[in-house]
Design goal:
- With 491 residues, this protein is α/β, with parallel strands linked by helices.
- The protein folds into two domains: 240 residues, Aldehyde Dehydrogenase, Chain A, domain 1 (3-Layer(aba) Sandwich), CATH 3.40.605.10; 189 residues, 3-Layer(aba) Sandwich (Aldehyde Dehydrogenase, Chain A, domain 2), CATH 3.40.309.
- The chain has 16 helices and 20 strands.
- Helix 9 packs across helix 10.
- The longest helix has 24 residues.
- 48% of the residues are buried.
Length: 491
């Protein structure tokens, strides 16, 4: 069994099974059978079930948010936002279930009907991270179910409880049992799911290091994959913005969920002329942050997910100071639980580990830039390419930065305060590849089947015998009846 801890209290709250390879095999086999049942339902029935999942999530918002906060350490306010997003995602995805269809393709061939069918890819394997457990699970389960797929999920062992609850809600809403399967466990459980030959697509959210082994395992079976592996997002602040009104949203974008989000803009680039003022104001705000129990509505910053992760974050700060960075400000944090104090570092150079690597904690690193070109160069000098923020009153500059930043998501004069399931999500470089949100999200779990249909052949078979298969990949089209006529004339 695996013990699940409450990060705010540092106390165990549940135990879940440590799934074996046999458990994964059984879940995949059951999902295969359930997927056929799910796809066999009328489209409007699948639409109704998906919409009902969204309704049930909203009906249980308070209990789900509490469960998520107790499990992950995410503040109750932030957990409520995640619940709203998940509900909206299922409502939005439900429309695809009844409206997805293939197309008819006109051909010059007489008597041939050509059309496509849009079909589910099959069984999706999903390995998720702990930081936004319910939300991450929903962003794959919703579009995959909308496409007609089944999903087998291996949630992170540190925060599996909300994913288990989501699977229960799906069954209650009308999705066949086992169509949303969950196998709890550790690394070996995830490895078995990644390498499983019964998986038709694999989706992974987690670290770059783990993604490499997951992709190698999936490649053994030729399983198509999509991954989201984090970021080190630049937050670029120009001198033409008002620091007083912009500071809080800048810090929120950098410290969301205690920095335990892949998009957080904790790599803060400030135009040199306002650097000192920005740092002093940010330091004052950070010292006053309310750090505490995630379940307390007054809390602004919650705990790290575990003692191990807390110590990892502390190691980044210790090494940064050893390299020459300075702790400019820290907040107070409770001694009980897995807390790390929000920390502002200055004197950070572009070669330091804390500037280049994802800390995944409430640690802000500040650096200066001189002019637009320097800001772009420093922002793009990263192995990650997930998100970025630009703070400026110059609309021409904003448009240029949206175009030239190496990021899949760019916020202008905001950061992370707007995120919608209607829009795509994903990045490049070491931040991963593949997108499964937005209008085309379910297409990531679908495939097109092409059909060429004719009536039963009658009369002479010379056309079939002489014509043979199409050459050049079927790109050339001609009139089959005319070809047969020419063959008769040659005789």
């Amino acid at each position: 069994m695996i013990t699940v801890w409450n990060p705010s209290l540092g106390e165990p709250i549940a135990e879940v099974p440590d799934g074996s390879a046999e458990d994964v095999d059984g879940a995949v086999a059951a999902a295969r059978a359930a997927q056929r049942e799910w796809w066999g339902l009328a489209p409007y029935e699948r639409e109704r079930a998906l919409h009902r999942i969204g309704d049930l999530i909203l009906e249980r918002k308070d209990s789900l948010a509490r469960l998520e906060s107790d499990d992950t350490g995410k503040t109750l306010v932030a957990s409520c936002d995640d619940i709203d997003f998940a509900a909206e995602l299922f409502h939005f995805s439900s429309a695809h279930a009844a409206r997805a269809h293939g197309t008819q393709i006109p051909l010059s061939e007489h008597g041939t009907l050509c059309y496509t069918l849009l079909e589910p890819i099959g069984v999706v394997g999903l390995i998720t991270a702990w930081n936004s457990a319910l939300l991450i699970a929903a962003t794959t389960i919703g579009p995959a179910l909308a496409a007609g797929c089944a999903v087998v999920t291996k949630p992170d062992q540190q925060a599996p409880l909300s994913t288990l609850e989501l699977a229960r809600i799906a069954v209650e809403a009308g999705v066949p049992a086992d169509c949303v399967g969950v196998v709890t466990g550790g690394d070996e459980t995830g490895a078995r799911l990644a390498e499983h030959p019964g998986i038709d697509k694999l989706v992974f959210t987690g670290s770059v290091k783990t993604s490499r082994s997951v992709l190698r395992a999936a490649a053994e079976n030729g399983t198509p994959s999509a991954i989201d592996t984090g970021g080190k997002s630049p937050n670029i602040v120009f001198a033409d913005v008002d620091i007083e009104t912009s500071l809080d949203p800048i810090l929120r974008g950098a410290l969301t969920n205690g920095g335990q989000e892949c998009c957080t803009g904790a790599r803060i680039l400030v135009e040199r002329s306002i650097l000192d003022e920005f740092v002093e104001r940010a330091a004052e705000r950070i010292r006053g942050l309310r750090v505490g129990d995630a379940a307390d509505l007054a809390t602004e910053i919650g705990p790290m997910v575990s003692a191990v992760h807390r110590d990892r974050v502390a190691g980044f700060v210790e090494r940064a100071v050893a390299e020459g960075a300075r702790i400019h400000a820290q907040a107070d944090a409770p001694e009980r639980g897995f807390f790390f104090p929000p920390t502002l570092l200055d004197g950070v150079t572009e070669t330091m580990e804390v500037w280049c690597d994802e800390v995944f904690g409430p640690v802000l690193a500040v650096n200066a830039f001189d002019g637009d070109d320097d800001a772009l160069a420093k922002a793009n000098a990263s192995r990650y390419g997930l998100a970025a923020g630009v703070w400026t009153a110059d609309i021409d500059r904003a448009i240029r930065f949206v175009r030239e930043l190496d990021a899949g998501l760019v916020w202008v004069n905001s950061f992370l305060d707007v995120l919608s399931p209607v829009a795509p999500f994903g990045g490049g470089k070491d931040s991963g590849f593949g997108s499964w949100l937005g209008v085309s999200g379910p297409d990531a779990f679908s495939r097109h089947k092409t059909a060429y249909v004719r009536g039963v052949p009658t009369g002479k078979s010379s056309e079939r015998l002489a014509g043979g298969p199409r050459s050049s990949g079927g790109l050339r089209q001609s009139n089959g009846g005319d070809r047969a006529k020419r063959l008769d004339e040659l005789r």
